[in-house]
Amino acid sequence: MNLKERIIEGLLFLCAAVCVLTTVGIIAVLLFQTIEFFSEVPFSDFITDTQWTPLFADKHFGILPLLTGTLLTTLVALIIAIPLGLSIAIYLSEYASKQLRGYIKPMLEILASVPTVVYGFFALTVVTPLLQHIIPGLAGFNAISPGIVMGIMIVPFVSSLSEDAMYAVPNSMREASFALGASKFQTALKVIVPAASSGIMVSVILGFSRAVGETMIVALAAGQQPRLTLDPRVPIETITNYIVQVSMGDVPRASLEYKTIFAAGLTLFVITFVLNNISYFIRKKYRAQYE
Amino acid sequence: MIAEMKKPEEQEVSLGKKEGEEKFSEISSEMPKLLNHKEEKSMNKVQAKNVHCWYGDFHVLRDINMEIKQNTVTALIGPSGCGKSTFLRTFNRMNDLIEGFKLEGEVLIDNKDIFAKDVRVNELRKKVGMVFQKPNPFPKTIFENVAYGLRVNGVTHKKFIEETVERSLRQAALWDEVKDKLNKNALSLSGGQQQRLCIARAIAVEPSVVLMDEPASALDPISSAKIEDLIWELKPKYTILIVTHNMQQAARVSDKTAFFYLGDLVEYDDTKTIFTNPKKEQTQNYITGRFG
After folding, report:
1. ipTM over cut 0.95
2. Whether residue A149 is found in the same domain as residue A267
3. What does the longest C-alpha to C-alpha distance in chain A come to?
4. Does B97 touch chain A (CB under 8 A)?
5. Are residues A91 and A181 in the same domain?
6. Which residues in chain A touch residue B152, judged by CB atoms under 8 angstroms apart?
7. Chain B residue whose CA is closest to A189
8. Chain B from 168 to 227: CB within 8 A of any A CB
9. Are A151 and A213 members of one domain?
10. pLDDT tens readout for residues B240-274
């Protein structure tokens, strides 16, 4: 018995170790290749140069265009996802009957399970042509269309976590507010949302992190032109997009061009790592508020 | 009467014009209250006529009749599950929020049926304040907690809000303890302070009736005594209904006491009579601690 227990424990530990080791391995590879990259390209160029042209004859290695491309699509996504996600969360938590809530929640989560390649296709073939009717001068590839579609994709992230946070606000808060003559909407907006703000922030940050790392939608609909711009109507390129481009192209391994994707990848990793840690910190700090 | 209640905007304008002194004299005197209630001579502030309540099929209150005079404290006592809290919560229609709740009969405040179709629930709740069993301040600043009722009722006049917050905190005997930290989170206060803050929050919208649902049961004896003192001080301005499990508390703070048992109003009389010479044996048994 004792031996059997020990073997089981050992096997389970091994499974956990595989995960941890994989993460460590990924970080090590990223770091190793990135260090090599920076032995050839000065770090100051990487963060100040306004052009990203590693695949051209006149090579520039400024990450800024890719970074703005990433942040621009993410910003558009958040502009869509935050109001929509919060409205849904308020409706589900404060207005919908228990029964309806039970139906709508899983349905929303279906949104999260649509393959992103389908979303990307949808952005390219439906949303962009539609937007071209409304926005004059909108290019076939642009930041706004994949941004919007990405926004819809992350709505369930925002709404589900926000709704959990709002639902967890004790009923005594609602009673106190109603007892002072507040309406349902006033209560939701002035009591429930502020009381759930830490959970809402976490949901937004996780949505942010998800949008920053999203690849397929932008790869299909955003274009492949690294460009330092805040104009969402023109083709841009995101970090993820660039990595796809190089990985699938015929760039020789171990060349400087090849190493650029590790530097770009590490940049992405740092962003999402920081975001996830912020959300973890917020969750930990405010968890005990009502206990 | 409910419809005649002063709108917050009107209060704001009329009070906003006056300056300090005049204002405080107005606040401290009983004059405006008396002037507001033209039907003063009609005696009964709160009245329940043949009230029945159900939660689904469960008949929680049976044929309750009660008349409550203005500026009195009425204690509702009885063992758990006797319906006293449900009865308390009919007066600000808090039970409406519970699925399956049904009420028959009439509940009158200032001779107006509060379940009539033309009554707006939020107007009613402004007039009938409530303090809950567990202190439930909002996770906002102390100031914003007290200002909340004014804000949701459309008051925006900054000075008026500030003055009302101070006055309410003074009335709730909390001002001296919090005046230097009005912008601190209300959750940083002690339980007793939080409960007095909730009282300040309730009276900031100038209700005429205040409902208290075991307001001191979650507090230590000293905080509890402070709440009792406070109830005495509030009596000249408000009509207070208090649910309590604490017999001594009922005896100390109330003018009248109502004893509920299993959904019936067993006895309703002067507190002195209830505690010294109750007419029903059930009441006698309960207050002497033989059951409940």
Report:
1. no
2. yes
3. 74
4. yes
5. yes
6. 177, 180-183, 186, 190
7. B152
8. 187, 198, 201-202, 205
9. yes
10. 999 999 899 999 999 999 999 999 999 999 999 99
- Sheet strands (E) in B56-110: 58-69, 73-77, 101-109
To test the contact with chain B by mutation, choose from A171, A180, A198 the residue with the greatest count of B C-beta atoms within 10 A, namely A180
**Token representation of residue B168:** 């309410």
**Residue range A192-249, pLDDT digits in tens:** 999 999 999 999 999 999 999 999 999 999 988 999 999 999 999 999 999 999 988 7
The region of weakest confidence among A278-287, B116-125, B170-179, B196-205 is A278-287
B81 closest CA partner among B224, B263, B271: B263
**CB-based contact B97 A178, cutoff 8 Å:** yes
Domain that holds residue A33: 2-40
Instruction: Assess if residue A74 is contained within a domain.
Output: yes
Domain span at residue B170 reads 8-38+69-92+119-287
- The total number of structural domains in chain A stands at 2
Query: Do A181 and B149 make contact, defined as CB atoms within 8 angstroms?
Result: yes
Report the CATH number at residue B258: 3.40.50.300
For residue B48, give the nearest of B106, B87, B114, B121 by alpha carbon: B106
Q: Which residues of A touch B139 (CB under 8 A)?
A: 194-195, 289
Tell me the Ramachandran region of residue A15: left when phi exceeds 0, alpha when psi lies from -120 to 50, beta otherwise: alpha
What does chain A come to in residues? 291
Q: What is the mean pLDDT of chain B?
A: 86
Q: Per the structure, how many domains does chain B have?
A: 1
Q: Report which secondary-structure segment, H or E, holds B66.
A: strand B58-69
- The phi, psi pair for B77, rounded to 5°, reads -120, 165
| Average predicted confidence (pLDDT) for chain A | 92
Asked whether the predicted pLDDT for residue B126 surpasses 90, the reply is yes
- pTM: predicted TM-score of the whole model, two decimal places: 0.81
Interchain proximity B149–A180, CB inside 8 Å: yes
Mean pLDDT of all residues in A132-143: 92
Residue A204 belongs to domain with CATH number: 1.10.3720.10
Looking at residue B43, what is its pLDDT? 66
* Statement to judge: residues A78 and A34 lie in one domain: no
